[in-house]
Amino acid sequence: MDKRSRDAVQTGDAVDTKRRTLLKASVASGFAAATGFAAIWPQGARAAEFNYKFATALDVAHPLNKRAAEALARIREITSGRVDIKLFPANQLGSDADTLSQTRSGAAEFMTLGHGNLGNYVKSSGIASVGFAFTNYEQVWRAMDGALGAKIRQDVARTGRIVAIGGLWDNGFRQVTSSTRQVNGPADLKGLKLRVPPNPAYTSLFSALGAGPTPLNYNELYSALQTRVVDGQENPLALINTGKFYEVQKFCSLTNHIWDGFWTLANRDAWNRLPPDLQKIVGTELERSVRDQRTDIAALSKSLQTDLSSKGLQFASVDSGAFRSALAKTSFYTEMKEKYGEDNWALLEQAVGKLA
């Protein structure tokens, strides 16, 4: 059995009936190969009462998927197979918008979604994407594990369709890469055609700094860089690495312009179908993996610059304060405050200090 077939079993890829039968005996070994750890299949496990899907947008190799797979395996073990949640990484169920629609309707039960993209549906979530707001992780977790995160979680629940489960997965601070020039300060962004996620927070930020933001889905990004549809992009180092953007980019500026994280969202009705004891198990094990994954990203961020440098990417450290000062001379922060409202803005500034 080849690796692709093994991965397909564990990520939920559709396979024909004959292949399912042939692979049944080797599911456990396939799971281990796909996730990098030994799967645990309890003796005498009963048929699952709850068969759920868990979708992510990130590449299979990303730490979020590794830790999510571990959580799902533990959930299966602890519940003696009553809860069987299958992982679908790398946009296998569609784009973020597609998967959110499925999660809202119940066609998918769980998903991870970046706080910026969630902001298209739950407005307050987008405030965590305000450019150059967070300057370090102490501020990030003070806000997102604290009052601001609690407010966003309440707003998610008010939609009536989805609920937010546990804390946010870390995806690191976002950095700017380019095939044409190094970005050493705000002036270097002028006219740079930069791919951004299809989210107003990103287009507003880079428009205010004079760049030419071009919204594209992540799965279109490598091709757009390769064919020079865009000059550059911005992503955390982990995604720059797993996406192999170093193959088609030359420069990387450590701008730390936006912190990136992912909520775990669940369809409300699917979540409520779980009895309280199973909700507790699922929530506890997901939160355990969230904490482990945050540690992974912290360690990975320290090693990735060296690794990416060896692959040809040229790094520059920049003064993020210069970018914040440039934004302060525009209407950017005032507009963001008006957009998200006085109450949400006050919660953000409690964690990061005065912005506007």
UniProtKB/TrEMBL annotation:
The keyword Membrane applies. Keywords: Membrane, Signal, Transmembrane, Transmembrane helix, Transport. CDD domains: PBP2_TRAP_Siap_TeaA_like. It comes from the Bacteria. One of its GO terms (biological process) is transmembrane transport. The chain crosses the membrane at residues 21-41. GO terms for cellular component: outer membrane-bounded periplasmic space. Its main location: other. The keyword Signal applies. It is found in: Cell envelope. Belongs to the bacterial solute-binding protein 7 family. PANTHER family: PTHR33376, SIALIC ACID-BINDING PERIPLASMIC PROTEIN SIAP. NCBIfam families: dctP, TRAP_S1. This is TRAP dicarboxylate family transporter subunit DctP.
